[in-house]
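Q&A log
Question type: sequence-to-structure
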Amino acid sequence: MDGSDAAGTADDEAVTEEQASHGHHPKGGLVALAIGAVGVVFGDIGTSPLYAFRETFASHHGAPGIKVDPVHINGVLSLVFWSMMIVVTFKYVLTIMKADNKGEGGSLALLALINRKTEGASWTAPFVLLGVFATALFYGDSMITPAMSVLSATEGLSYISPSFEPYILPIALAILIGLFAIQSRGTASVGKLFGPIMIVYFLTLAGLGLMHIAKMPSVVLEMFNPLNAFNFFLTDGFRAFVAMGSVVLAVTGAEALYADMGHFGRKPIGISWLSFVLPCLLLNYMGQGAMVMSVTPEQAVWLIKDPFFLMIPDMIRVPVVILSVLATIIASQAVISGAFSLTQMAVQLGFIPRVSIKHTSETAAGQIYIPVVNWALMIAVILLVLFFKSSSNLAAAYGIAVTGAVTIDTILLTVVLISLWKWPIWKWLPMIALFLLVDLTYLGANLIKVPQGGWVPLAIAAAIFTMLTTWSRGRSLMRQTMAEGSIPMEVFAKSAHSSATRVPGTAIFMASAASGVPSALLHNIKHNKVLHERVVILTVAIQDVPYVSEEKRCSVKDLGQGFFRITLRFGFLEETDVPATLKRTDMCGGPFEMMKTSFFLSRQTLIASAKPGMAIWREKLFAWMLRNAASAMEFFRLPTNRVVELGSQVEI
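Response status: OK
Response body:
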């Protein structure tokens, strides 16, 4: 494409709210979608019982752990219950998931929705940066989640036999490496097993919990009583606040409900959560608490070191541990797939350079594989496992990315409630105040973990945020530079028609801007001194909606003298297959025959300069990203034997 862009922005011809597709509607019945959601959406939060309750009572920052007695156990259980209700149920399921972008969710989709509705108002700039930072935090989370989940499950092997102890780390690494190695084959066939396996897993959680609740039924009422949570803070003060950094582990994965909404729909996810997943999780947490309270204080201190695996009866220990390992693999797969989807969305919206995106399914549009993201995640996960060595050590790093992302979601939700939904202050203020109180409490408790490992996700997020914003800013500066000396296309068409020899065929010049003459066209006529009988200036415009209807896909402007300007519009979740789309277009002098069509691209070489724009180090970073971006031929599915690339230099 002209410049480094993956797509242009045809603002003057952008798809409007009414013109855009009415959203992406997940296929399948309500029950089937609800079961599918159990297998994909709830993997992360579903594996939290393996470590969340344990880590709350562990020592933090050199201080002794929380006392293992009924007051503290009931206080922690109450915090877990109300966290699930406020953060997951009230905030995400009942509120944020209503703020969808044509059926799609997630921070970037919400950001695109705000941009479209507010028409790029200047006051939205800080919220754009927040949305981008939430995206950067997700990448950090997608590195830590597989390491934390798989390590916590494989540690359960030591309860099968102590002889497994030396092999826990190698087994976890082998599982993770194998998981990343199979990504290129797609997960469509394996994914069919996710739902049934996770249903069995959640039923097992509930069954284990009920076994121990029967010994102490009073734990049920104590968990629902918010006074126990307040009493916990009155008793322990700051130490209770520190423990909140571990209590939040019980709701990690809450943002996945919103991010995966486009795959399953709001209603199936809500039904799965309220009727199945939430009760199973609560029963297991209550069971862990009941087990610890039903024994002597000495036994309780021993049980709290790993209550999940110690609550499993010996006769079913082996299958439950294996089932737990499978559940953590599924949770990791969901996060990896989420990173692929997020990257595709970020590329289309102009925050990440073009990358090679491979589709692993002919029927499922969401089944994609991005090699560079896959291998980068694998290396990061392996390094995290080798550096932290245990799930308890990783718990210090786990949580900051999640709490940061959910806090940003609350801030973006505030913009939606005020500017888009026009809620009166009496309606939105109490709700947002409650959400922010909980979010900021969890975020503050996790920030205390920074010296013990919390710096890892923050460092990862900061590096990715820098790259995302550098790419976005660099693209903008490059467009401005290229537009400064552009010639009106109508003027060029008249002069070029009389000064150049016309040859048979069609020439398509890719252009990032919807006006002016592409540099590739100028270079071609300067050096070859010929023009094809049909010259098409093609701009691919990515819209702030996930999907664009076919009737609004293409617009054509006849410039005369055999020159045409075409704009192809795609949603930010659609594949930009230019040849396939052009074959369905015959509005500019007849259909396109690929064997008689040549594509001309201009690949820019960036020259860093001291003029105002970006710092020199950021210009050099942008130049490096530009050099390593995937080729436009691959990104736009152009036939390699019909492409001509012409180089040019751009100074920013």
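Response note: The beta strands are 358-359, 368-369, 501-510, 530-542, 554-560, 563-570, 597-607, 643-651.
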